[in-house]
Amino acid sequence: MTQPKVSRRRILGTAIALPAGVAVAGGFARSAMAAPVKLRLATPFNLDPRLSPAKVFYDRFTEELKKNCGDQIVVEIFPDSQLGGDADLIPQLKFGTVDIMMAGSAIWATVVPEVGVLDLGYMFQDFNHFDRTLDGTVGKALGGMMAEKSGVLVLGWSHSFGARNVLTKKLVKVPEDLAGMRIRSLPSPPVVETVRAMGGLPTPMPIGEAYVSLQTGLVDGIEHDSPTILATKFYETAKFLCLTQHTFQSIPPIMAKRAFDNIPANLREGFLAAGTAAVAHEREMSLIAEAQAIEELQQKQGVLVTKCDRSLFEVRCRPLWDDYMAKNPKAKPLIADTIKYRT
To answer: Strands 152-154 and 201-204: what pairing?
Structure first.
C-alpha cells in the first residue's frame, strides 16, 4: 500500500504546534503560539493615581504580572463605571463580562451580609488594626463566605484612600454637634446606622447627587475619605472637616473563580503573588494619599480640619455591634476576632 506523502512544511508545522500549551518546567514561559489570557478589570474609580485606589493597584499589579508571568496574562482596566456601577459589577463577574472588580467592600454586604462587619462604626482603631484583622482569621473567613456564596476569589484587602470622616457646614467636635444635621452617607445599613448613632441624621444617596445636595442645603454634610472630598470638590460647599475616622473600609480586588480557573496552572502562583504585592503597595500609598489630601484641603482649599475624641463617638456606636450579631449570627466570631486584634 502506498504511504501518503507528508511535506516538510507540514512536519515542521506539527512540531511547532505540539508544545503550544505545554508549560516550561520551573518557569512561566509557554510557546509563542499560545494566546495570552486576557482579563477585564472594572471599577467605578477614575485613573488619577493620587486619588484612585484602583489605579494604584492596577499599575503595580500589571507590573508584577509582567515579572512573574511575562506576556501570558493581560489585564485591561475599565474605569469610571464604564461597565457599570458597584451593584452592576457583581452579576457581571458571574456572567463573565467582567473578570475582576474593584469597588467598596460595602456593596458585597448585599450578597454576603457578614461583610457588613467592615462598615460598622469604630470597629477598627486604624489601618494597622484593619490590616492585622483582614490578613488574619477575619479576612480568611470572609473570603471563604464570598467564595461559597458568589464564586469569587479575594485577591487581597486593599484600603480605601483614608478613613471616612465628616465634612460639614458648621464646626463639629463632639456627637452633640451633629444633632439635627443631615449627613449624606453610603446607602449601606451599617453606615446609615453608624451616622445615626454618631448623632447625625443619615441621608443615604449616590455620591453623584451629593454635591448639589450640599449646595442646595438638602444635606448639611457628608461622610467620606479625604481624597474623595478633594476630588469631588465637596470642600466648595462645606468647610469643616472633623476627623471622626468612624470607618476604615476596603476596596478589595475581587476575581471570578471562573476567570481564575482559566489561568494555566503554571501561571497561578505568579498571578496570586502579583495580587499580594499590589495590595501591599496600594495600602502604603493610601496612607500617603490621605495625608496629602488633608494637607491640601487645609492649606489650599480653606477647610478647617479638626481632630476629635473618637471615644465619645465610639461609645455610641458599640451597641450596633451587638445588634449586627443578633441579626447575623455568623458575624459574631468575626467581630470577636476583630476585637482580639486590637492593641
So the answer is: unpaired
**Domain spanning 31-160+250-291 has what CATH number?**
3.40.190.170
Pairing of strands 304-307, 152-154: unpaired
Q: Compute the residue count for the chain.
A: 343
Domain layout of the chain by residue ranges:
31-160+250-291, 164-248+295-340
Classify the C-alpha dihedral 241-242-245-247 as positive or negative. negative
What is the pTM (predicted TM-score) of this model? 0.86
CA 28 vs. chain centroid, Å, equals: 29
Listed in sequence order, the residues at least 6 apart from 92 whose beta carbon sits closer than 8 Å to its beta carbon are: 42, 83, 84, 98, 101
Identity of residue 305: V
Backbone dihedral angles phi then psi of residue 64, each to the nearest 5 degrees: -70, -35
Pairing state of beta strands 182-185 and 201-204? Answer: parallel
**CB-based burial, 278-303: b 16+ in 10 Å, e otherwise:** bbebbbebbeebbebbbebbeeebeb
Gap between the Cα atoms of 331 and 317, Å rounded? 16
Q: In this structure, what are the phi and psi dihedrals at residue 313, rounded to the nearest 5 degrees? A: -80, -40
State the burial class of residue 63 (Cβ atoms within 10 Å of its Cβ: 0-12, 13-18, 19+): middle
Question: 103, 251 in Cβ contact below 8 A?
Answer: yes
Q: Average pLDDT across each block of 10 residues of the chain; the chain has 343 residues. List them in order.
A: 42 38 43 79 92 95 98 97 90 94 92 94 97 97 97 97 97 98 92 97 91 96 95 95 97 97 97 98 96 96 97 97 95 96 92
Which one of 3.40.190.170, 3.10.120.10, 3.40.50.2300, 3.40.1050.10 gives the CATH number of domain 164-248+295-340? 3.40.190.170
Residue for grid cell 482559566:
262
- Cβ partners under 8 Å of residue 181, min gap 6: 168, 170, 172, 200, 201, 220, 221
